């Protein structure tokens, strides 16, 4: 089996040039290593199916990324366009395709960011309620905006506390708003 693979490698000894050719050569080497590892290991059927699914998913993601990049590559390969026409074409493509550099970025960073924002939102809400509920010294209660009776009313500190609570709720809602 290994002799056949080595013969096939020598037959396909074409040395592609460019970055895509280098990627293909690296991929060929890694696939050959993977095949050797699979042949040498003793895997059960369930684990084998799981690995097959992971590999198939990787190829699907690669194809999806290639499909998203195809219009940009077509624009790049059209040599008859002036700089202005290239710029207009790129502007049109960017407006039509929601595309950015985070296509293959891991989602773990987003989960950590959402977790930190969730904790910050909860802390803001708790601090805002604590500022309203806990008694404050008279020197800290600046001005009373509205009097309920002669001894009690809504102060500026209460309004600031409500703003802090509103900020926490807004942060909480925006954190879980799907985009």
Please sum up the structure shown.
The chain contains six helices and two strands. With 179 residues, the chain is mainly α.
Main beta sheet, described? 2 strands, antiparallel
Strand content of the residues, in percent?
Answer: under 5%
Instruction: Tell me the count of domains.
Output: 2
Radius of gyration based on Cα positions: 31 Å
**Helix-strand topology string:** HHHHHEEH
Let me know the number of strands: 2
Strand order of the largest sheet: 1-2
What's the mean pLDDT score?
Answer: 78
Unreliable segments (pLDDT under 50, ≥5 consecutive)? 1-13
Cα shape: elongated
Number of helices: 6
Q: For the terminal residues, how far apart are their CA atoms?
A: 50 Å
Structural class, from helix and strand content? mainly alpha
Q: State the share of residues found in helices, binned by percent.
A: over 70%
Using brief descriptors, characterize the structure shown.
disordered N terminus, 6 helices, 2 domains, two-stranded antiparallel ribbon, 179 residues, single chain, elongated, mainly alpha
Task: Provide a descriptive summary of the structure in words.
This protein is mainly alpha-helical and 179 residues long. It folds into two domains: 2-96, no CATH class; 108-175, no CATH class. 70% of the residues lie in helices and 4% in strands. Strands 1-2 form a two-stranded antiparallel ribbon. A hairpin with a 5-residue loop joins strand 1 (144-147) and strand 2. Mean pLDDT is 78; it is low at 1-13.
Please describe the topology of this protein.
Elements: H1 2-11, H2 18-40, H3 45-77, H4 83-96, H5 108-133, E1 144-147, E2 153-155, H6 156-175
Antiparallel strand pairs: 1-2
